[in-house]
């Protein structure tokens, strides 16, 4: 969902060249988004999102300027992965690993995991993705209010 929202907000912006998403675990690799995710996106006008889940790769740390963690566990996992990459290739440029929720107005906020709850969890997660994305674009990239 985060990728779809971010792509929607940055469509046509030449400063954003590559947006992707990946998990720290391989349990959903190759799967399409949850139907409730797609329904929530469609309810908010995002209807062209096509994605297959993948796992974070070592090369991602050099490919992306920013790697946004959805919660503290993901942040810790990504920081450990990045440390291993740096040890094996110290000369390679490395993207910044940061907590996405730090850009939502509440420092340290984690993305709720809606998958085991009711459908309103997907609406809450969508609201978070919009808020975090707008905050990130404003704070780090100076793109101004993204309303």
Automatic annotation (TrEMBL):
Active site as annotated: 113 (proton donor)
InterPro entries: LMW_PTPase, Ptyr_pPase, Ptyr_pPase_sf, Tyr_Pase_low_mol_wt_mml, Tyr_phospatase_low_mol_wt
Protein name from the UniProt record: Low molecular weight phosphotyrosine phosphatase
SUPFAM superfamilies hit by this protein: Phosphotyrosine protein phosphatases I (SSF52788)
All residue ranges annotated as the Phosphotyrosine protein phosphatase I domain in the record: 1-139
Molecular function per GO: acid phosphatase activity; non-membrane spanning protein tyrosine phosphatase activity
Source organism superkingdom: Eukaryota
UniProt subcellular location: Cytoplasm
One Gene Ontology cellular component annotation held by this UniProt entry: cytoplasm
Signal sequence annotation: none
Gene3D superfamilies assigned to the protein according to its UniProt record, in alphabetical order: 3.40.50.2300
Pfam families named in the record: LMWPc
Keywords: Cytoplasm, Hydrolase, Protein phosphatase
The family this protein is said to belong to: Belongs to the low molecular weight phosphotyrosine protein phosphatase family.
Native source organism of the sequence: Lasallia pustulata
């Amino acid at each position: 969902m985060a990728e779809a929202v971010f792509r929607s907000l940055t469509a046509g912006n030449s400063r954003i060249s590559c947006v992707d998403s990946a998990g720290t675990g391989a349990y959903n690799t190759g799967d399409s988004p949850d139907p409730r995710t797609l329904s929530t996106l469609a309810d908010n006008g995002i209807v062209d999102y096509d994605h297959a889940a993948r796992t974070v790769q070592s090369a991602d740390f050099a490919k992306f300027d920013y790697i946004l963690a959805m919660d503290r566990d993901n942040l810790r996992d990504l920081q450990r992965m990045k440390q291993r990459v740096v040890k094996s290739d110290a000369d390679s440029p490395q993207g910044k690993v940061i907590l996405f929720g730090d850009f939502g107005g509440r420092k340290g906020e984690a993305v709720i995991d809606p998958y085991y709850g009711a459908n309103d969890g997907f609406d809450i997660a969508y609201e978070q993705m919009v808020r975090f994305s707008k905050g990130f674009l404003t704070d780090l990239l100076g793109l101004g209010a993204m309303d």
